[in-house]
Amino acid sequence: MYAPTTHGEHYFHQIECPTDHGAMLEELIQEDWQVFSEEKDYDKLLFDILNYHREYYDSLNNSDLYSRDSASFTYVSNIDIWNNFADSIKKENRYFCKNDLSNKLESLLPKKSLKFDPNSVFYRARIGNYTLEKMGPPPYDKATSGRGNPKGIPYLYVASNKYTCIAETRPWVGAEITIATIHLKEPIEVIDLSSKVFLSSPFLMDDLSQNIESIILLNKLSDELSKPINPFESDIEYIPTQYLTELIKNLGYDGLKFKSSLGAGENFVFFSLKKFEYITLDKCNVSGVGYDYAIESIPQALC
């Protein structure tokens, strides 16, 4: 996780001072991991622990400076890899992407699998007055591009509660909403990217750097799935998450769970209707719509 602060890797001695880029190793460890809850004399204690059982020739010197691996000029994080992939698949090669992530993702995604038992309940909403038969996904010739599906490939979008599924329709005041309650008929397994992953301790893993990078990538995928998208740019901006969803389907999972950007619950994308049944319908009218916002004042020069 850490390496000696080096000219050419972390700074250039002609124009920079190493103390501006490096720090004591014990300071970095305490800052990153909060090994000790109280800061009093932690530096001396950590220094002694780090030197324990070291021979004279490889012992640490308390005047040496260290930097995080991520601060190296040559370091490429998994977030950089994802961003390069997303940019490439949107703007360069749609079907034969140069920065293919499938192998990396195939090893990570099973760690986020989640099973649902029969009779689990989900909700789907549509603006308008519909019968139960009309509450499924659209036919392929009317399926528009979505966060999880390419145009022409319909999936079932549902939510964990009624409020979230209503919010996902982006209704207006007075809009009539039809809500279907959907039950699961048989067990399914999905990939759950609705919540962040956190590392509880740095001392419980064999390959700490690799595990941290894996967590960073999974959390990036969670952010990508839940971030608001400008509807006028969605056809392009949804392409990376559509790739992710198609990969999950190709791995044999039944769907994907992710955090809603419009409601307090979670959204689901399911690939097949065969394991679900529509039970009841509710009708409602939207009586109000709220907005949270932040105002940024822009100074203007007086003529």
TrEMBL record:
InterPro entries: RES_dom. It comes from the Bacteria. Residues 131-282 form the RES domain. Pfam families: RES. This is RES family NAD+ phosphorylase. It comes from Jeotgalibacillus marinus.
